Amino acid sequence: MSSVTEISPDRPVGELVVDNPNRSRVFEQFGIDYCCGGKQTLAAACAKAKVDLNSVLALLEENHHAPGDASEPDWATAPLSELARHIVERHHVYLRGELPRLAKLVFQVVSAHAEKHPELREVGRVYAGLQAELSTHMMKEERVLFPLVEMIEAAAAKGEGMPPCHCGSVENPIAVMEHEHRDAGEALARMRSLTNGYTPPADGCPTYHALLDGLKRLEADLHVHIHKENNILFPRAAALEKQLNG
Ligand SMILES: [Fe+2]
Ligand SMILES: [Fe+2]
């Protein structure tokens, strides 16, 4: 990926990460939302996260020439079908394994520690909601939205018009998915705040530590996952549909 594009306070944070995925590390470090909030400018995102814009700019500049993730293609130009397949194989498969594992840990930790740490009950409620929503969310992407994106790309490759689609426009399922991403983002932020940034208490048992570590990794993976959908796959699919509609 290009790492030489300009970094300025008025560029959307999602776009900065599309240009160079390495920048997501800086944003994660400062708690800056670049996935659901990817359309915000860098200045607005820093203000929202209550962090100093100049400190973020300095770190982004430092990171400027660091190589991107060479293990992944440049998703800004790779075929959309390849990106959709990658999202399923990398992120959906991970979630399908990790969500039930963490659900068991949540149950164990709430049972053992909620008396002394009552906020765990709320963590359990938020987690259950997130797990249920993500499971149906991924199914909708795999059965409806991603096949439609692939059809649009295939039609464009053959020089055909927009294929018939029962959703009207690809923008309709995209809007639903973006709404669900916002819900997931809010659930993650709530769990982060309830657990004091995923910090185990002094009396936390190994399972407590394992749960918070697992939730922290889940959050980081979901941020990257949602970024690839909201800031790359969805806008590219919508643009291609517009092109087909002339
Ligand atoms: Fe997804
Ligand atoms: Fe999604």
Considering the chains and any ligands shown, give keywords for the structure.
246 residues; 69% helix; 8 helices; 2 domains; 0% strand; mainly alpha; binds fe (ii) ion
Question: Could you describe the 3D structure shown?
Answer:
The chain is mainly alpha-helical and 246 residues long. The chain has two domains: 13-63, no CATH class; 80-244, no CATH class. It has helices spanning 13-19, 23-30, 42-49, 53-63, 80-113, 119-157, 171-194, 206-244. Helix 5 packs antiparallel against helix 6, helix 5 (80-113) runs antiparallel to helix 8 and helix 7 packs antiparallel against helix 8. The mean pLDDT is 92. One fe (ii) ion is lined by residues 87, 91-92, 138, 141, 225, 229.
List the helices and strands and how they pair.
Layout: H1 13-19, H2 23-30, H3 42-49, H4 53-63, H5 80-113, H6 119-157, H7 171-194, H8 206-244
